[in-house]
Specification:
The protein is α+β, with helices and mostly antiparallel strands. It has 21 helices and 27 strands.
Length: 716
């Protein structure tokens, strides 16, 4: 129409293109899985369809149906606007006048919209089976499926009568069937859901737990508590949280890629924090920060490869090669020794400069290399975007360093009772699928399946062949028991929080706005040889613990157990209640006041829980960030609890002795015991240096030991 500028047609065409082609990443994975014909061999209890259909075909149908409704509605609105502007649709004498050409346009688009809506009604049983409407009993599922079939039939009639209206049918007939379609749709939406009856039904609970076990890898969660050998006083502690690492190191070099891990020294596993130190003007180094012990003054200790004990003073565990891949690495690197593409032609330069949006590629001299995606996490996401990769963890090998990460598979319409918030949206399936390895020096990537019986991972292996390798192809050095991914542990905890398990409530994470953002972030991963990570569940009053989710690593593989605390002799209070009781210790208040008086700031850590042979234990480290010395942090005290008994001390051992009533807390580094501990540390360090033939380090250790033993404070 003359009254409508032509640029509006271009704008409408661009809008239609965005609606049609935008968000392709949201349904491409579903399309590939649907074409692969993935099957899990288990049927859902309501619809009777194989669970594999809910990984590919069902979400693809739902995505296409929603896109069809959006396009049909947008086209109908645009055509009505065009005809109103052109005068082919007008209101005259309280009647709507429609030209024959306009009637044809409207009839086709009305039929398309009705068909798309009817398609949605036909897919309603799949939404019900996937749990998108909430928990349902079989009887209510059948009733709602019948209502959806009636709604789909009325929608198909509306599409047919819309086309017949174009051929001369009276408009009142078409309008009447559309009005009936609207009434039926409204009645289906306002039909009340009886979710309470489903949640209370034992049959539904059993089926939901079975589906949750598949969706969240919870097999064996109800098999009973794991065997516990260690007493509470013999537990391996973890004394540092991630926010404190930079203050604990206390140097100008930035730390990145912090992740928990373990070091085996003398046949004993020690928890550590691995982090990359990338100081300006210095080569990047991998640090191993001791997490189970501190210096006599509470300072953090550093491991060096080959040592039998950690030592104070900033020490690198292993130097990283030049231009190595590492977390928080530069996005693009242009250098002669970079592991990337050689810049040897203007066409290649132009293409790379445009693709990377990096002009220095054009001006670099011939023979220079350009490398990108130098962060292992970024590289894994680019190569295998169908999996969610956990933050990479370093694995020092005999001939180099690799970054390892777990690839988790997720789904939004998996027929499971638990729908949890995860990775920015609700999901109903999170399970491990892949194991990624990135070489820190060459940048090469290898991806392996973790379970040969996983049908979904096998489907992706067929789709991306030969990218994903079988589990048997994992190198021998990497076949040691791997820890349970922290993100998977959090997803499992959220599933157990649901109505099918009723494990309890997760403690809200700090800075999460009241949601349990990271209940396992402060915990070490299960250690090779029997370590465990624990996620606590509180009761409704937030006073006592109701259950523990225990993830344990072993030679046979990782396992998870849900331990319900029903014995009053093993009962322990929640983290909030323990903090309130620990705050009443006079020694703690005096120590905090002394820290503040010197300009320092006391910082509390998260409360850790552990399952011991003598009950459920809990402990909490607290640090002092001093104003002097660049704001360095040191361990201030440790609070412990075993059942209803509490203790406090400058070290973990002292806190347990205080809990048993054997001693009172003392100041840091005081007494002969602290001096002997430091002497023992230097003796072990000297022994380690002697075994590896490091005479310079041996002399330094013996000199420090001599100075320590000759100090007057020991004679006093």
């Amino acid at each position: 129409p003359a009254r409508l500028p032509r640029w509006t047609l271009l704008a409408a065409a661009a809008l239609a293109a965005v609606l049609l082609g935008g968000g392709g990443g949201g349904w491409l994975d579903h399309l590939l899985l649907a074409r692969s014909g993935v099957r899990l061999g288990v049927t859902d209890p309501l619809l009777g369809a194989d669970l594999g259909a809910f990984m590919g075909a069902v979400p693809l149908w739902l995505e296409l149906q929603a896109r069809a409704v959006l396009l049909a509605a947008a086209a109908l609105a645009g055509v009505v606007l065009l005809h109103l502007t052109g005068g082919t649709i007008r209101l005259a004498e309280r009647r709507i006048g429609i030209a024959p050409a306009a009637r044809g346009h409207l009839a086709i688009l009305l039929a398309a919209l009705a068909a798309a809506l009817a398609w949605g009604c036909f897919l309603e049983p799949y939404r019900l089976a996937a749990g998108l409407r909430g928990p349902l009993l079989t009887s209510e599922f059948l009733l709602r499926s019948l209502v959806a079939e009636i709604e789909a039939g009325v929608g198909a009639a509306a599409a047919l009568l819309s086309l017949l209206w174009w051929g001369g049918l009276r408009g009142a007939a078409a309008f009447g069937v559309w009005a009936l379609f609207a009434l039926v749709s409204l009645a289906a939406r306002v039909l009340p859901l009886h979710t309470e009856a489903a949640v209370a039904d034992p049959g539904w609970q059993a089926a939901a737990r079975s589906l949750d076990s598949i969706a969240f890898a919870l097999g064996g969660a109800e098999a009973g508590p794991p065997a516990v050998r260690s007493a509470a006083a013999g537990l391996i502690p973890t004394l540092w949280d991630e926010p404190m690492l930079a203050a604990a190191v206390g140097d100008s070099g930035g730390l990145s890629g912090a992740s928990r891990g373990w070091i085996i020294a003398g046949g004993v596993p020690h928890p550590v924090w691995f982090a990359v130190r990338d100081a300006r003007g210095e080569a990047a180094a991998l640090l191993a920060l001791a997490d189970d012990q501190v210096s006599p003054t509470g300072r953090i200790l550093f491991w060096r490869e080959g040592d039998s004990t950690p030592q104070p003073g900033l020490r690198g565990y292993r130097d990283l090669p030049a231009h190595a891949l590492r977390p928080a690495a530069p996005e693009i690197e242009v250098a002669a020794a970079a592991h990337g593409v050689v810049l040897d032609g203007w066409i290649k330069r132009l293409m790379l400069a445009w693709a990377l949006q990096h002009p220095p590629v054009l001006s670099a001299r011939s023979g220079i290399r350009v490398a990108w995606r130098l962060d292992p996490a970024v590289r894994l996401r680019a190569i295998a975007p169908f999996a969610r990769w956990t933050p990479p963890r370093p694995r020092p090998l005999k001939r180099g360093l690799v970054w390892v990460s777990d690839g988790l598979l997720s789904a939004g319409v998996f027929p499971s009772s638990a729908r949890i918030p995860w990775a920015g949206g609700p999901v109903s399936m999170v399970r491990p699928g892949f194991f990624g390895v990135v070489d820190a020096e060459s940048g090469s990537v290898r991806i392996f399946r973790t379970d040969p019986a996983d049908s979904v991972a096998a489907a992706w292996a067929r789709i991306t062949e030969p990218l994903i390798e079988p589990p048997a192809a994992v190198p021998a050095e990497l076949r040691t028991p791997r820890s349970l991914p922290e993100e998977l542990l959090i997803a499992q905890a959220r599933a157990l929080e649901g109505p099918a398990w009723r494990a309890g409530l997760l403690e809200p994470g700090p800075g999460s706005g009241g949601s349990a953002a990271g209940p396992a972030r402060f915990l070490p991963p299960p250690a090779p040889g029997g370590g465990e990570a624990v996620v606590p569940f509180m009761d409704e009053t937030n006073r006592d613990l109701r259950a523990l989710l225990v993830a344990r690593g072993s030679a046979e593989g990782d396992s998870v157990r849900l331990v319900r605390i029903e014995d009053s002799t093993r009962a322990i209070e929640s983290a909030a209640a323990l903090r309130a009781r620990w705050a009443r210790f006079p020694f703690r208040a005096q120590l905090q006041d002394s820290v503040r008086a010197t300009g320092g700031v006391p910082e509390q850590g998260r409360v850790r829980f552990a399952l011991a042979s003598d009950g459920v234990a809990a402990y909490q480290p607290e640090w002092a960030v001093t104003a002097s010395g660049g704001g360095r942090a040191q361990l201030l005290l440790v609070s412990v609890a075993l059942g209803r008994k509490l203790g406090i001390g400058r070290t973990m051992a002292e806190a347990w002795r205080n809990l048993r009533g054997e001693t009172s807390p003392a100041t840091a580094g005081a007494g002969a015991e602290a001096v002997l501990q430091e002497a023992r540390r230097w003796m072990l360090h000297a022994d380690s240096a002697l075994r590896r033939g490091d005479l310079q380090e041996l002399g330094r250790a013996l000199a420090n030991l001599k100075e320590l033993l000759e100090t007057p404070r020991l004679r006093r």
